[in-house]
Amino acid sequence: MDGGLRLDLNWLDYLLLTLYFVTVLGVGFAARRAIRTSVDFFLSGRSLPAWVTGLAFVSANLGALEIIGMAANGAQYGVMTTHYYWIGAVPAMVFLGIVMMPFYYGSKVRSVPEYLRLRFNRPTHLLNAISFAVAQVLIAGVNLYALALVLDALLGWPLWISIIVGAAIVLTYISIGGLSSAIYNEVLQFFVILAGLIPITVIGLVKVGGIDGLFDKVRSGDLGAGALHAWQNTGSSDNPLGAHWLGIVFGLGFVLSFGYWTTNFAEVQRALSARNMSAARRTPLIAAYPKLLIPIVTVIPGLIAVVTVQGLGADEGDLVYNNAIPLLMRDLLPNGVLGIAVTGLMASFMAGMAANVSGFNTVFTYDIWQTYVRRERSDDYYIRVGRIATIAGVVVGIGTAFIAAGFSNIMNYIQALFSVFNAPLFATFIVGMFWKRMTAAAGFWSLLSGTVVAIATYLLYLGGALPFETDLEESFWGAGLAFVTVLLVAFVISRFGAPKPESELRGLVNGLGGIDVKGDVLVGDAAWYRSPLLLGGVALALSLLFYIPVW
């Protein structure tokens, strides 16, 4: 089998792709009519129902990074990739919905950094706003690069042309319709992505003799039987992931996942756009259910690729792990279905990058420009600033795409980014939200010190000073070290200063009151099946049950 990635599309495939682009832009123009204030542009007027924000929540994460990266991980590490879903996502999503959303939504903050300004001080707020903005353009670059892989397979375009064309598509509909355009397109994209990935999974399984045939081929292949177990041999690093169970549970399952899902504004923004407190809390809980099942269309195709694509896993060229999905598209799908799959990958890119860009423009406008540069201007002025920030974020994202191009497995790169930006932020949040004695100075210095430790850990690993088995193991431990650093610094510095008065912390810190979770309840919100505790409890139970067949 040659390594060429070129896909043989016909007129039907191109027609499907064209119809999708027209629909996406149409949603943008339709959303523009509802924009009257900056809250409409940046937070959809806080008016969306829970099912819309819930699907947008999971779709915003289901970007090209997720599709390309998790399939690559499935091919490289096997079933252990499910840790990123069942322990590395669902518990944190449940915690966000049940515990943290009342503070976010009830305090009426417009962004995650704004919560830090109210809880601590302006230096902490500015530090987080800047670090979040940097993280979003770096992650946007990853999504752009992932799209470029697909366009290279589709048209044979050079990397730089693919990146610029892809960026222009997202720039158009975000700048026109704001967050509403992003969210409604994310709902559409969720179904388009599944329509593209399900045929790859089904046809691939048929080709290898079903799930039993797939597992037999994996056992007899280079990955071996260890790739079919999630927890086996995690008492040491003798497993495909090269990670100890402690790193998986504490680094990934707690610090990295909670850091991402509970403090990443690109996700939380979807819940903040919900129409009331009940809908905001249910947003991540609704999203947890499809998240449980996503490994079927990401990890399974990765395993199919590793047993059907000879030579997959090269250090460079067409056979790197990142190309697992495009290679399966080439080998398995007939025309028409191929067009749906290509459209699905395009949709996944747009969903991921749109989340990054909409989060970036909101934080830049509200938390940097309005707070520190130009205060008390008109809503129209801030909408213009938001549109300019959208353009700037996309342009910088084009540059950062070339950084992502230097990684053979982009998921390893993104986990390194999460360990640097999200882990220390989550630690700062969790202490500040549940410990009223934490001072404003402790908020700033703990966040800064945790970030520095995470960066130092990564650089020492790259320099060979820290001998971790894999890039992912470094991310787990880097996140854990950053978390512990924040705890220690917060405790020490808080001992030498006075906390804010309790009157200023009401609605921001647990146990001090000020949060009314039922004050804006709508008819139907009290139905038993909409209970956040029930939704969250069932999601957690399922995340444990799903491990049993692959323990």
What this model shows, in words?
- The protein has helices at 11-32, 38-43, 50-61, 64-77, 83-86, 90-106, 112-119, 122-155, 159-208, 210-219, 245-263, 265-272, 277-293, 295-308, 324-332, 337-373, 379-404, 410-421, 423-434, 440-462, 471-494, 502-505, 532-545.
- With 551 residues, it is an all-alpha fold.
- The longest helix is centred in the first third of the chain and has 50 residues, at 159-208.
- The model has no long low-confidence stretch (mean pLDDT 86).
Tally of contiguous helical segments? 23
- Which structural category fits the helices and strands? mainly alpha
Q: Please state roughly what percent of the residues sit in beta strands, choosing from under 5%, 5-15%, 15-25%, 25-35%, 35-45% or over 45%.
A: under 5%
Q: Termini, distance in Å?
A: 34 Å
**Percentage of residues assigned to helices:** over 70%
Cα radius of gyration in angstroms: 22 Å
Shape: globular
Task: List strands and helices in order, with pairings.
Blueprint lengths: L10 H22 L5 H6 L6 H12 L2 H14 L5 H4 L3 H17 L5 H8 L2 H34 L3 H50 L1 H10 L25 H19 L1 H8 L4 H17 L1 H14 L15 H9 L4 H37 L5 H26 L5 H12 L1 H12 L5 H23 L8 H24 L7 H4 L26 H14 L6
